[in-house]
Amino acid sequence: MSKVLLTGFGPWGSEKYNPSAEIALGFNNVVIGGYRVVGVVLPVSYRRVISDLPEILVKIKPDIALHIGLAPKSCEVRVERVAINLMYSEKGDVDGFKPVDEPIVPGGPVAYFATLPTRRIVERLKEEGIPAVLSYSAGTFLCNCAMYVSLHTIAAQRLETISGFIHIPYIPQQAVGKSAPSMCLHLSRKAVEIAIKESIDYLKQRESSKNR
């Protein structure tokens, strides 16, 4: 059966709960459009994402890799367009690592573009009444790192996988006392499901056009 790798992130720092992890695990083993979802939670660790994610991709060989993470200041779903070969974090990851402008992959390409149908996903989310935007910066923390590592691994291993990243906002409970925007978990989950469905449709249409 065709597969979708869906990754979220665990807690870090003051964020003891990460909705991306709940969404990823909630979709684990769910079948969407004939594709089985494999949900995985990644640690908020540069070192472990760089070492573990390539192994996961090579082992599963998914048709689609959708990575999701939390964007605390966002008021909408952000569909990321590009990942850069750079790590920077003042607060550091769960291991206490605080990189300053270090490459994710020394000697690797400066950047990779998402290979998911990003514009199509954003348009569909808006049609469904979900606030969404196409973003051209995934930051320099673990979200950007996971996206870059995924796309780099796919290129290096010549996997036939399309990949990208989506940022989701806080859920309301996380925003209490922070004057921060939020989105209910149900809506974020729906956004992820729509992104998966649009990616599946994109692959099916691409395959159909090849067979003509």
Structure in words:
The protein has 212 residues and is α/β, with parallel strands linked by helices. The protein has six helices and eleven strands. A seven-stranded mixed sheet has the order 2-3-1-4-11-5-10, sandwiched between helices. A two-stranded antiparallel ribbon has the order 6-9. The protein has a two-stranded antiparallel ribbon with strand order 7-8. Strand 2 and strand 3 form a beta hairpin. It starts with a strand and ends with a helix. The model has no long low-confidence stretch (mean pLDDT 95).
Spatial shape: globular
> What's the total count of β strands?
11
Estimated radius of gyration = 16 Å
Whole-number total of structural domains: 1
CATH class type: Alpha Beta
Along the chain, the helix and strand elements come as EHEEHEEEEEEHEHEHH
Q: In percent terms, what proportion of residues is strand?
A: 15-25%
CATH architecture level-2 label: 3-Layer(aba) Sandwich
Name the CATH homologous superfamily: Peptidase C15, pyroglutamyl peptidase I-like
Backbone structural class: alpha/beta
Helical residue percent band = 25-40%
CATH topology: Aminopeptidase
How many helices in DSSP terms? 6
**Chain-averaged pLDDT:** 95
Give unreliable regions as ranges: none
- Which sequence of strands runs across the widest sheet? 2-3-1-4-11-5-10
Q: What kind of sheet is the major sheet?
A: 7 strands, mixed
Terminal residue distance:
23 Å
